[in-house]
Amino acid sequence: MLLRDRLLALTVAVVWGLNFPATAIALEHWPPFLLAAVRFTLLAVPTLLFVPRPPIPFRMLVLVGATLGVLQFAFLYLSMASGMPSGLASLVLQASAPFTVVLAGVFLRERLTRRQVVGVTIAVLALAAIAVHRSQTAALLPVVLALCGALGWAIGNVATRKAGAPNGLHLTLWWSVVPPIPMAVLSFVVEGPVRMGQALGTAFTLDALPADLGLLYIVLVASLVGYGLWTRLMSRYPSSTVAPFSMLVPVVGVLASWLAFGEVPDVVEVLAGVVVVGGVLWASRTPRLRTSAPSGSSAPSREQRSSRALDPGDDSCSIDAPVAEPAAAGPAAVSPGGPDGPR
Fold first, then answer.
1. Kind and range of the H or E element at 147?
2. CA torsion, ordered 82, 88, 92, 94, to nearest 10 deg
3. Is the pLDDT of residue 342 over 60?
């Protein structure tokens, strides 16, 4: 992974980490399913009017929206509304990273490199240590609901990778068109029209202002910036390369919840958070090229250099995908994500 893209992935981790205290504040006024319905409606309306639909099959668009939008946030918001602390929610949701790796291996035939195995294992063990240490702060049901949200996120990651949209932001906006109606129906059935009416009727009062600001952060920053960058990265790199960065989110989430709500992390959580960061950075780091040439050869062949350049992180350069032939000059060589690529 290029250094620039690693920095973008770190930006996503910070944006999403801050999203958890913002969500906790928004849930003080908005019931969970209605919050999700309003969130995605605010994105869907301008998308339908002004944003061109990404050139991917309609079924893939629906699948991404149903998993990333409906499954992930229905379970996550319900978990937090059921008593899950925002810091712990940011931790449990990152089970999506190993879920993504497993699902990508099954459905996309992606295989972890040795470096990624080591890095992801270290990060998962550190997250497990935090979870065990924090387990007494939440009941079992909220944890299970958050894990279901993590599974929805993982399925969405694989679907995003499979869709291969040339413009990540356009895909993010268009999959946001899917959740509003299912979420509104869930809100009507589960939360009831009375509670919906109360939340909507008092949405512009002074008491609701903090919750409204939290909602705006969710819509403008976490959705547009966070998922726009994430979708771009998922379309450019194997899922197993990008997904480990999501395990940095709870580090930011726990610290932000500490500052916002006084959820003070102790030494165990701080040390485990440092280990998570180290494991993810190790998993994503591209190894240096070997400079020694094989016996009887003065320099690596062109094919060997191409193979090494394509490897996202394996010391032995073991990769499942075949090395692509050099692209011909002309329109076919334009990068789909570049300024001259399809919109």
1. helix 140-163
2. 130
3. no
